[in-house]
TrEMBL record:
Molecular function GO labels: ATP binding; hydrolase activity; RNA binding; RNA helicase activity
Top-level taxon of origin: Eukaryota
Domain Helicase ATP-binding: 172-378
Name of this protein: ATP-dependent RNA helicase
InterPro entries: DEAD/DEAH_box_helicase_dom, Helicase_ATP-bd, Helicase_C-like, P-loop_NTPase, SPB4-like_CTE
Comp. bias (Polar residues): 40-50
C-alpha cells in the first residue's frame, strides 16, 4: 500500500541537541541577562548554565555573569532566585551563603603594566641620612656664634648635640648680617630652629653682656614687639610656638604668643596689650589685628619670617601678605623703644625678611618679589647652592635619602581591603611601628574611613578628678580619637585611631594632634593635607598616601612627616593599574621607588583572621580560609555593615518584613507609615558622601598631572566597592550633594517621578529610601557629568 502522505527528512547532525533553557522567577531584567548569557554560552559550545569558577585572571573572556542588582539588604533576603526550565536553581558566580549576591574582588580587574621583580633586591648598606645633625666633633652650636647660655641650654635641656646642615649655614648669616634670606632645605632638616635661634640670640643680647652677665637695662614683655612669624595653618603656628617656648626657657623674661583663627579675638587682644616680644600668627588673623587692634605696635619689629611660603600662596594669602608687608614697612622704624633702650647696633638696623620653603615654585618666586630685597639664598650645602644658581633657581628638593619609598599597584575594588591588610601587617610586630599617618584627599572620606575602622567600644578617658586639664581636652577628642578595629594583632591588641581635617573646630584639631603626638600606644592618624606641612610629630615611622597628592610638591611634604632629623622611615603610595602607574616617574626620590603588587600585601596581612569590631563575631569557617577568601569575606562584612540597619529597622519598629516588590501601595505608592519605613544607616550616608567627594577631588589634580589621573579612565562601579558600596551613588556632577527632602504635600506628585528625578539631578526621591540605585547606564552618565567639572576645582571643598 502506497503512502499518500508527505515525508519530511531533517538533518540533525551528529552533535547533541542543545536544550533550550527558560528562566523563571525574579525580575524580568535578571531573566533577560541570564537568557543572554545562556545563549552566548550555547553559541560558544559551552554549558548553558553559568558555572562557579575561581578567580583565574583579568581576561574579559572569563568575566562571570553580572550579579543581580540589590537595592537594599531587606529586599535581598526575599528576592527570588531565577530557576531554569528543569527546575534547578541558577546561582551566579561567587554567591554568598547568606543569600546576598556580590561580585568577586579578583575578577574583571585591569592588569598592571609595571614589571615586578620576583627576586627580592639584595640588601645594600643603609643610606646615610641627608637631614641628620652633624657630628659633635665637627660642629657645635657655640661655634656658630650663639651665646654660651643658649648653646648650653640646647645641649643639656633640649638634648641637641649638634646642628644640622641648614642650621650651620643659616645661623651665622642671620647673626652677623642684616640682609634678607631665603631658606631652602628638605623637610625635617630643622629650618624652624635655623631662624628662631638667631632671633632669640640677638634679642637676649639686649639684656645680657657677652660674658653672660646682666645689663643694667633689661628688656621684658613690655619692651616691644621684635619679630613676627607667619605660618599658613593653625597647627603649624602652635608647633612653632611650642618649639620657641622651649628655647625661651633660657630667657624667661621674653614672651611669645600666637594669634590664629578659630580663637577668641578678645583674649588675643588682651595678650597683645599685656606685652609680647615674638608674635606667631596666620596671615588672615594678623591682617585683622593690624586693622583693628591699636595696641599692636610694629614700630620696633626687626624680623618678619614667612614659613612655608609656597603653601601660603597656594591657600590664597597673597593679598594678606602684601598688606602685612606694606603696613610693616610703612611704619617708621624706631631706634629706641618706649623705655629708652637703644635697639640699633644689637638688633638689625633694618627690617629683615626671612622666607622659608622646601620647594622653589613660581608662586614662591612671586612671594619673594613681594617680601624680599637683595636676599641671600641659603641651602643645606654649598654644592646645592651652586647647582641651584646654575639651574636658574628651579631645583626641587627630593625626599630624605634614608626614607624608603614604595608604591602598591592595587585595583579600585581592592583598595579598602588592601589598606586594612597593610595596616594589619604593619602592627603585627610589637615596637616595629609606633605611629602611622594616612593621607586622604577630602574631609568626607576621612570621616568615613575613621568611622569604618574604629572600634565600637568607648575609649577610656581620664576622669576630671584625676586630671582636670586632660579631662577638658578629652571632651574635644571624643569624636576624633577611638580604639581601632581590624588592624590589631596579638602583639599590639590596642591601636588608637585619630582623625584630623580642616572642617573640625580649632580646639578639636589642637587636642587631636596633641593626643596623637603624646600617644604611648601604637597610633594611626587619618588626615587630609592639613597635616602635611611643617608638623613634627615624634616617632612617625610610616606614611601612607591612600589618595595621591594633588601635586608633586604636596607629595614631598607628605612623606616628609617621617624620616625627620636623621631617623629612618617608610612611605607607601597607593596607585591604580593603568595610567596612574606612570606617576612614579615624575616623583623626586633619592632612592628608587619600589613597585609592589597588592597580592603580596594581602597575603602578608591576611595570613591570620581579622579582628572585627566589638559586637561582630568572626565565623569559625574563616579559620581555614585562604587569603583570597578572607579578602572577599572582609569586603562582604564591610558591605553588610553599611546595610545592617536597613535589614533590622523594620523588625525594631515591630513591622512585618516584606520584600520591596510587594510594598503596599496607596495613591502615592509610599510606605504605610513612618514606623515601617527603613532608615538609612549613618555609615551608609557617610560612604555615599565620601565617594562623591573623592570623585570630585580626583578631578582637581593639577593640569600637568592629569595625564596620570584621568577621570575618564576611572571605573566608578569598582571605586564604589572601595567605600563598601555595591552601586555607585548618583549626584556626583552636581557639586554639593542634592538631598532634597520634599514636604508631605508634595509626596503624591513626586513619587511617580522619583526615578526620573534621580536621572536628572543625580539624586531623587528614591535615593533617600534605597541604596543608591542606578540603572545600567549610570557609569556612562556619571563620566559625562564629570567632564563638566574637571576644570572647576574651585567649587570643591577638599578639606
Amino acid at each position: 500500500m502506497a503512502d499518500d502522505g508527505m515525508l519530511l527528512n531533517f538533518e540533525l547532525g551528529d552533535g547533541p541537541l542543545n536544550k533550550q533553557v527558560k528562566f523563571k522567577g525574579g525580575r524580568w531584567r535578571d531573566r533577560l541577562k541570564a537568557q543572554r548569557s545562556a545563549k552566548h554560552a550555547q553559541q560558544n559550545g559551552t554549558s548553558s548554565a553559568p558555572s562557579r569558577r575561581p578567580p583565574t585572571g583579568d581576561d574579559d573572556s572569563t568575566r562571570p555573569t553580572k550579579r543581580q542588582r540589590v537595592e537594599d539588604g531587606e529586599s535581598a533576603r526575599h528576592a527570588k532566585v531565577p530557576k531554569t526550565g528543569d527546575g534547578s536553581s541558577w546561582t551566579p558566580s561567587h554567591a554568598m551563603k547568606t543569600g546576598q549576591i556580590t561580585s568577586s574582588l579578583f575578577t574583571s580587574n585591569p592588569a598592571p603594566v609595571t614589571a615586578f621583580n620576583e627576586q627580592p633586591a639584595e640588601e645594600t648598606e643603609p643610606a646615610k641620612p641627608s637631614n641628620a645633625p652633624l657630628s659633635e666633633e665637627a660642629e657645635n652650636f657655640h661655634s656658630l656664634g650663639l651665646s654660651r647660655r643658649v648653646a648650653q641650654h640646647l645641649t643639656t635641656k633640649l638634648e641637641m648635640k649638634a646642628p644640622t646642615a641648614i642650621q650651620k649655614n643659616t645661623i651665622p648669616q642671620l647673626i652677623k648680617e642684616d640682609s634678607d634670606a631665603f631658606l631652602q632645605a628638605e623637610t625635617g632638616s630643622g629650618k624652624t630652629l635655623a631662624y628662631l635661634l638667631p632671633i632669640v640670640h640677638r634679642i637676649m643680647a639686649l639684656s645680657l653682656n657677652e660674658d653672660g652677665t646682666a645689663k643694667e637695662t633689661k628688656v621684658h614683655r613690655n619692651s616691644g614687639l621684635f619679630a613676627i612669624i607667619l605660618a599658613p595653618t593653625r597647627e603649624l603656628c602652635k608647633q612653632i610656638a611650642v618649639v620657641l617656648e622651649k628655647v625661651l626657657r633660657c630667657a624667661p623674661w621674653l614672651v611669645c604668643t600666637t594669634v590664629i583663627g578659630g580663637e577668641s579675638k578678645k583674649s588675643e587682644k588682651a595678650r597683645i596689650r599685656k606685652g609680647v616680644n615674638i608674635l606667631i600668627a596666620t596671615p588672615g588673623r594678623l591682617t585683622d589685628h593690624l586693622d583693628h587692634t591699636k595696641v599692636l605696635d610694629v614700630g620696633t619689629v626687626r624680623w618678619l619670617v614667612l614659613d612655608e611660603g609656597d603653601r601660603m600662596m597656594e591657600m590664597g594669602f597673597e593679598e594678606d601678605i602684601r598688606t602685612i608687608v606694606g603696613k610693616i614697612r610703612a611704619d617708621k622704624l624706631q631706634k629706641r623703644n618706649s623705655e629708652g633702650v637703644v635697639l640699633d647696633g644689637i638688633l638689625p638696623s633694618r627690617r629683615v625678611t626671612v622666607l622659608c620653603s622646601a620647594t622653589m615654585k613660581m608662586n614662591v618666586q612671586r612671594l619673594g618679589e613681594i617680601s624680599l630685597e637683595d636676599a641671600v639664598h641659603i641651602t643645606a650645602s654649598k654644592s646645592e647652592m651652586e647647582k641651584d644658581a646654575a639651574a636658574g633657581n628651579q631645583a626641587a628638593f627630593t625626599a630624605p635619602s634614608q626614607l624608603k619609598q614604595s608604591c602598591i599597584i592595587v585595583p579600585a575594588k581592592l583598595r579598602l581591603v588592601t589598606l586594612v591588610a597593610l595596616l594589619k601587617s604593619t602592627f603585627a610586630r610589637r615596637g616595629s611601628v609606633m605611629k602611622a599617618i594616612i593621607f586622604i584627599s577630602c574631609a568626607d572620606s576621612v570621616d568615613f574611613h575613621y568611622e569604618l575602622l574604629r572600634d565600637t567600644e568607648v575609649l577610656e578617658l581620664p576622669t576630671p578628678e584625676s586630671s582636670p586639664t586632660k579631662a577638658g581636652a578629652s571632651n574635644h577628642t571624643a569624636s576624633t580619637v577611638a580604639p581601632a578595629a581590624y588592624v590589631t594583632s596579638p602583639a599590639n591588641p590596642r591601636v588608637i585611631l585619630h582623625k584630623l581635617h580642616g572642617s573640625l573646630a580649632q580646639p578639636v584639631r589642637s587636642s587631636t594632634l596633641n593626643a596623637f603626638a603624646k600617644c604611648k600606644d601604637p597610633a594611626v592618624l587619618i588626615t587630609t593635607d592639613i597635616a602635611s606641612r611643617g608638623l613634627d610629630v615624634p616617632a612617625v615611622d610610616l606614611v601612607i598616601e591612600y589618595d595621591p597628592a594633588f601635586a608633586v610638591p604636596d607629595h614631598v611634604h607628605r612623606i616628609g612627616r617621617t624620616a625627620r632629623a636623621g631617623r629612618s622611615g617608610k612611605a607607601v603610595l597607593f596607585l591604580l593599574p593603568g595610567c596612574e602607574e606612570g606617576y612614579t616617574a615624575i616623583l623626586p626620590a633619592s632612592t628608587p621607588i619600589t613597585p609592589q603588587l597588592y597580592e603580596s600585601v594581602l597575603q602578608k596581612g591576611l595570613i591570620t583572621t581579622v579582628n572585627l569590631p566589638s559586637g561582630h563575631t568572626t565565623p569559625e569557617s574563616t579559620q581555614k580560609q585562604t587569603w583570597t577568601s578572607r579578602a572577599e569575606a572582609l569586603q562582604l562584612h564591610f558591605e553588610q555593615r553599611l546595610l545592617a540597619p536597613l535589614q533590622s529597622s523594620a523588625q525594631e519598629d515591630g513591622a512585618e518584613e516584606t520584600p520591596r516588590k510587594s510594598k503596599p501601595k496607596g495613591k502615592s505608592g509610599s510606605w504605610p507609615s513612618k514606623a515601617t519605613k527603613p532608615k538609612d544607616n549613618p555609615l551608609l550616608d557617610s560612604a555615599r558622601q565620601a565617594f562623591r567627594s573623592h570623585i570630585r577631588a580626583y578631578a582637581t589634580h593639577v593640569r600637568e598631572e592629569r595625564v596620570y589621573f584621568d577621570i575618564t579612565q576611572l571605573h566608578l562601579g569598582h571605586m564604589a566597592k572601595a567605600f563598601g558600596l555595591r552601586e555607585a551613588p548618583g549626584g556626583i556632577g552636581g557639586g554639593v550633594s542634592r538631598r532634597v527632602h520634599k514636604p508631605a504635600a508634595a509626596t503624591n506628585s513626586a513619587s511617580k517621578g522619583g526615578q526620573k528625578g534621580g536621572k536628572a539631578g543625580g539624586m531623587g526621591k528614591d535615593d533617600d529610601d534605597e541604596v543608591g540605585v542606578v540603572d545600567d547606564d549610570a557609569a556612562r552618565r556619571m563620566k559625562e557629568k564629570m567632564m563638566m567639572v574637571m576644570n572647576a576645582s574651585s567649587e570643591f571643598n577638599i578639606g
